[in-house]
Here is the input.
Amino acid sequence: MSPSLVSAAGSWLYLWERSALRGKGPGRTRVEQLASKSMEEKQLHRALDLTRNARRVEFFTGAGMSAESGLDTYRDAETGVWEKVDPQAMASISAWARDPEPMWAWYLWRARLAAQANPNAGHHAIARWVRLEGVDKLQVTTQNIDDLHERGGMADTTHLHGNLFRFRCTICHRPWKGPVNFPTEPVARLSPPTCPLCGNLIRPDIVWFGESLPQREWERAELGMREADLVVIIGTSGVVQPAASLPLLAHQRGVPILEISPARSELTPLCEFSWRATAATALPALVSALESEVTGG
Ligand SMILES: [Zn+2]
Here is the structure.
């Protein structure tokens, strides 16, 4: 993750809140409501034209995918004891080396919040898309560190930036399979366990600033982009490198890219069509339409 992740996610969410207010205000006239309805239908039809014949679909998701589940990226944990904490200070190996206990407590608390959140209608819709007739392969690559795709039905999700529910040794990288005591309320400090192999501290298996992305996951994501005949980008600002460069692999081959995002992103220029909607509204509508085309309903 780069430092831009935090600021980008912040501004993205701000725009989302503004557009949501504009669209749902009670003061809209009947004409405005009808115009908006017809606009929504037009957008759905454009998305359908792009997606109905796709056989190998690569999903690329970011913070906007989890927003409607109530997870607000780094800012989730900014309550109580964490109010004054700079999230960026919680994502570097130098901070870990200096004082690991606040970071261990902070990540376990974030994991607790993620575990309490539920997958939204967008997550469930992707799992329905896999089962559509004619779809040979559907893969999800996410920059999110929660497990909402998995719990929404996509058990085999690729995590480019790590996973809140996995832990490993800081030095020898051995995965930690022992118990982890997730706090039931935010606490300022917790002691991480130590590695049974080398005695060093167990850390969250999250990609911190300046660290490289996990190789196997990166290769899998690249392959997905190289093999796909449709890419669907959801809720990502497209500023976090190197992840944001992945859709270029598909774009260079002339593969259509559909973006679902309430706001324009850095990836919008690569996209055949950008549907200005949230994941939990657009995806269920699109998948239902694809399903009814298959069944002729
Ligand atoms: Zn170790």
Notes: The CA atoms of residues 231 and 257 lie 5 Å apart. Residues 30-51 form the longest helix (22 residues).
